[in-house]
Structure formats: C-alpha cells, structure tokens
Amino acid sequence: MNNEYFTIQQASEGIWGAISVPGSGSLGNAAIIDLGDLTVVVDTTNLPHSAALLRHTAEQLTNKPVKYVVNTHFHGDHVNGNQEFMSSELISTVWTRDLLADMGEVNIDVMQQNIRRLITSLDHMRSQERDPHMLTGIGYDLSVQRALYDTIPSLRRVIPKITFDDKLVIRGTKRTIEVLSYGGGHSLSDAVVYVPEERTLITGDLVSTKTIPVIPYGNPYAWIRILKRMQQDLKIDTVVPGHGDISNSDRITDVIHFLEKMIAYVAGAVTSGQSESYWLEQGVLKGYEDWHLPQYFRWNFRWLFNSMLVQNNR
Ligand SMILES: [Zn+2]
C-alpha cells in the first residue's frame, strides 16, 4: 500500500491516513474512510500523481470507488489532487469553495514564474543556512516546489460542488461521519471530519504532529478557540493531522500551546523596541526547535510581528 509519496497508517477501524513522505515532493496528508457502502477521501495532497495513487489505494482498501472527497481547506497541498477524483463528489465549506472559484483557472506561466522564484530563494536560503535541522526543512520544501513545478502544465482547478456551512452528516451502513466547520483559524475557512464511532478526527491543518503550524493569512486567536471547542465538543482518541504522523488528542493541546506561546512571544517582541531582524536571529521559539519545517517559524514570526505592529499603530 505504501509508495514513494505516502505511507498508509491505520488510524482506527475503517480509517487510514495517507501520510506524506518528507522529501518525496509530496506535501499534505490525506485520509481514507470506509463507511461500509461508500468510501470517503479527505484531502487530495499537493500533486495529481500522488492523488492518483491515493484514489487507487482507497479503492483497494475499501473495495469500492470513492464516492465523496472532502477538502478541509483551500491550500494547494490539500486540493491540488482534486483532478484525480472526477468521478467522485467534492465537498467543502461555502467559503473554501468560493476561495477556490475566485482563484480561477490555473495560470501556467504565472504559477511557473512564482515557483521558479520561490525555488531560487530557497536555494539561496539553503546556501546561507548552517543549522542541520533547518537545512532538512528547506530541503523538504525544495523537493515539494520542484515536484509541483513539473506538474503545473497538467494542473487543473477542480472546485467542490457540494457545500455546507457548519455541519454535514454522511451516513454509511458501517459508520457515520460528521463534516464540521467552526470557522477559520489556519485558513479563512477550515473543516474537519469527525468519526464518532471510532472517536477519530481528521483535522486538516488545524492540527499537525510536531510540525510548525503555518499561521500567515489565518487567525491564530480564532484558531485557538476552534481547537478548544473541538476538545470540548468531541470525544477524540485518534487524530489524523494535516502534516506529520497519526497520533492522539495531545497533538491538539500541542498546537494550542504553540499558538498561545507564539502570540505572547511576538507581542513581547513588538513592545521590546528591538527590530524584526534582531528577533529573527533568535531562532525558533524555545521548546519547538525539534519540530518539523522550522523554516515556517520565520514566516510566522514576520507575519504576526507586522500584523501586531499595524494593530498597535491604529
Ligand atoms: Zn494549509
């Protein structure tokens, strides 16, 4: 069942995670759920060719075609593979659907130009970097961008046709799933898939395992509220995260703590009078040095620092 892009990890009875292999070019986890009479896939990874393998794997594991695909949010590493599920029904929140629709058709030239630029800047970052953990993270990013670059000419935007606001229930003969949204935290609109019978939650990027969460253009305050509400409302033993390995509900607490500490850290930095570059030189927030994708820390810091500066100057 495993391939170069993802490993299949069983989360619970009838639920599997397709966990992206770092450095393979693949980014973003997906999940497969066997509802008995129908099969659901959650998210489609960043690459159409890994999505084709995902569909094949789902059909093999459940012995059925994939009836529904849920997109947890609009980020490319969760929706780029949609085009491999043309005979399935795609589902997302209204917002996520609108965001994808507003992006229009894939503009091959512009996208290639942007990714070429990104690859150049990652190459530059790598040549300046000494920290081995950071170098590994940048290397993973490079593999992802290079794989995406090659796939752009065949990339098509496929937009969900079934939308919901805060809750959609799909009942199968063996188990039921609840597709839930508590608004936007990581992105403008985030959905999760909850399987009550198996006490399992597929979180999209609201939760990642030991991976620096991506905050820019989201809302870290709302994100914390969403995670706390999920802890309160849902009985969760198993988490299939957006990035990293399958784990338990402690990973939700990890992300809450990270976001709370990050907000306090950046707020302190803003009032310190020291420059942004001074703070960036301090490296990753203490206690999170071993988390994956440490290069996202700088991006988070910059974005949050500047958002808070703007707020303070209002
Ligand atoms: Zn994301």
From TrEMBL:
Domain of life: Bacteria
Biological function: Counteracts the endogenous Pycsar antiviral defense system. Phosphodiesterase that enables metal-dependent hydrolysis of host cyclic nucleotide Pycsar defense signals such as cCMP and cUMP.
Provenance organism: Paenibacillus silagei
Record protein name field: Glyoxylase-like metal-dependent hydrolase (Beta-lactamase superfamily II)
Cited Gene3D superfamilies: Ribonuclease Z/Hydroxyacylglutathione hydrolase-like (3.60.15.10)
Domain Metallo-beta-lactamase: start-end pairs: 27-243
PANTHER family in the record: ACYL-COENZYME A THIOESTERASE MBLAC2, METALLO-BETA-LACTAMASE DOMAIN-CONTAINING
Catalyzed reactions: 3',5'-cyclic UMP + H2O = UMP + H(+); 3',5'-cyclic CMP + H2O = CMP + H(+)
Lineage per the UniProt record: Bacteria, Bacillati, Bacillota, Bacilli, Bacillales
Pfam families in the cross-refs: Lactamase_B (PF00753)
